[in-house]
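Cross-posting from the modeling subforum.

Setting up a comparison between two proteins and wanted a second pair of eyes on the formatting. Protein 1 (sequence, then structure tokens):
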Amino acid sequence: MPRPGRGDALYDEIGRSYASQRVPDRRIDAQIRRALRDARTVVNVGAGSGSYEPTDRRVVAVEPSAVMLAQRPPGAAPAVGGVAEALPFPDGAFDAALATLTLHHWTDLGTGVAEMRRVARRVVALTFDTVFELDQWIVREYLPEMTGQQLFDFPVVDELAALLDADIEVVPIPADCTDGFTGAYWARPEAYLDPKVRAGMSAMQTMDQALVTARMERLGADLASGAWDERWGHLRALPELDLGYRLLVSR
């Protein structure tokens, strides 16, 4: 039986609204599909409710959380319970392995990467470069405690690229991004005031909720007074922004 990863119990607890709040963004999806190139068979590791799974290829999903598996829509790719560190497939079973915003939940990154490379000839991984963490105003001004959370161990991008023998692509985040991860609302600050929106952000949901509520009340006051727009209102006019999200594509 595979050893549970950190995402298992975590997403059983906080992942109940992911399917509604984490709607794949078409522009990010297009970049991922381009990276998959001619792969006809794909294993989606840490698949969650199925975000960014291609529908024009044969896909098998691997996910440890029963709550996340239950949110997969009708007609989604077949899914198995399991963890990245022990993929239940023979060597070379797939053309490509896909991992989107999941690496920071794995118990053993090196083993998980080795497993993806074992079962697939190409690896495509969407992750976040923490060098950019404090560049996000939501972190810098309101939730600096989010930086370096022990529950979220994002790999160093250059080190991950070396492990994967991968090229690094910038993933610009559109101002109207539909995927509600933590940085998605950089130009729409009002969204962070909604608890339903925050429910799709694992980084916020694992924090002290009294603290988060108090800081979001301060954000609301800054929006009402115009203080936020004085400091960050220029962001509202930008079509997209580099927040540190990176796509790694093995050579």
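Protein 2 (same layout):
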Amino acid sequence: MAASTWKGFLTFGLVSVPIRLSPAARTERISFNQLHSVCHTRIKMPLFCPTCNRMVERNEIEKGYEFEKDQYLLFTEAELDEAEPESARTMEILEFVKVEEIDPLYFDASYYAAPEEAGVKAYHLLLDAMLESGFAAIAKVTMHSRENIVIIRARKEGLTLHTMFYPNEIRQAVNYGSSDKSEVKEQEKALAMRLIESLAAEFKPEKYHDTYQQNLQALIDAKARGQKISVVPHASHVPAIDLMEALKKSLSEKPKQEQAPLRVVPKRAEPGRKSRKAG
């Protein structure tokens, strides 16, 4: 079972449901360590105090807020705990909205909300009611030193929670699209609609893969076996000058769904040495 990110009560009206949250997704990526080029030792970032001119231990660390240059207000963990609002322990549903009314631009991180043993019946009561009504819930919860507005969605498997960006965190679009559509011809739009229909498919996220991460892994595996990668050249793209011609050509050609994989070829043996077989 995944570690809980938050534990507390989900409330709607006078009904309280003890729940726990766990991350629903996380980014998977290959990471590289920084090494000293002389000895290939991994570089570490030590906790160092330039005033005392020595390394410091974790238990010597305290939190401070810089209110002026090099001037800090100091806070203990107990003081910070006192500042926690009620939403640190209780997630109160404020209202219910239609999920299609929410702009996906506001969605941030996703979590699974699972009931504790004492709240199973109330949890499923809320889940069934939300599934049948088609509503999502808006609630407040404090996690990671931040009070979040969250969307709670009902899915067949259970409740899913999404933290939201606040309106002031959404960046204003600059030169985002254009209201001038006078240059778009009806015939061009009709061909564009046909192209969209030809590419229409049922949403199946398992079809999609991170090609860059796959290529990195292939590079790592090949390098570990003393092989090298033969890189497939990238396609060349230029802006379409004749839109009608580009649309017609797009409809006549089958689009490539995935980038061709990188090819692993044996590394050439150095002069005077026997070639090694790939392991």
